[in-house]
Amino acid sequence: MKKEELFTDEFLKQFKTGDELNSFLKQLQKRGIEKMLESELDSHLGYDKHQQTIEGNARNGFTPKKVRTSFGESQIQVPRDRDASFNPMLVPKRGNMIDGINLAVIYS
User: Fold this and answer.
1) Residue 54 lies in a domain
2) Using CA atoms, how far apart are residues 6 and 92, in angstroms rounded to an integer?
3) Would you give the distance in Å from CA 50 to the centre of its chain?
4) CA 25 → CA 2, 12, 70, 87, distances in Å?
5) What is the distance between the alpha carbons of residues 17 and 84, in angstroms, rounded to a whole number?
6) For residue 6, is it within any domain?
7) 63: confidence class by pLDDT, cuts 50, 70, 90
8) How far apart are CA 80 and CA 89, in angstroms?
9) Which residues lie closer than 8 Å to 68 by C-beta, 6 or more apart?
10) φ, ψ for residue 65, nearest 5 deg
11) Which residues form the domain of 84?
């Protein structure tokens, strides 16, 4: 499915106020950030989630973190690894602000 096909006119008609639309966009951005962080961890570890690995470092749950975005403050779940060597580029350790998420480019 193409990204353009996700937001049909029928789908967008469900938002009756600007607050409803902003709430949806905030939730969409939160989930997008979390998925991008998971992808960063996949790249850092060198394998996808649920794959077997022979190396010592592995996923080790999530850590909650408050971040400020253009849609306000959100609590996200940042994935972590056992060696604590994962330092996300999108939301660096000890950072809590995401400026211009559209400028973030992650290479894998």
Assistant:
1) yes
2) 30
3) 18
4) 18, 12, 10, 26
5) 43
6) no
7) very high
8) 13
9) 96, 97, 98
10) -150, 135
11) 17-103
**Residues 1-36 pLDDT 10s:** 787 888 889 989 999 999 999 999 999 999 999 999
**Distance of alpha carbon 94 from alpha carbon 102, whole angstroms:** 21
Count the Cβ atoms, other than its own, within 10 Å of residue 104: 14
**Tens digit of pLDDT for each residue in 49-61?**
888 877 788 999 9
Q: What pTM was estimated for this model as a whole?
A: 0.81
Asked whether 40 and 106 are in contact (CB, 8 A), the reply is yes
The reply to whether 21 falls in a domain is: yes
| Residue 64 Cα distances to 28, 74, 75, 77, 81, angstroms | 17, 10, 7, 5, 14
Tokens of 98: 């995401």
Tokens of 47: 């394998």
Sign of CA dihedral 31, 35, 36, 40: positive
Residues 64, 77 contacting (CB under 8 angstroms): yes
The total number of structural domains in the chain stands at: 1
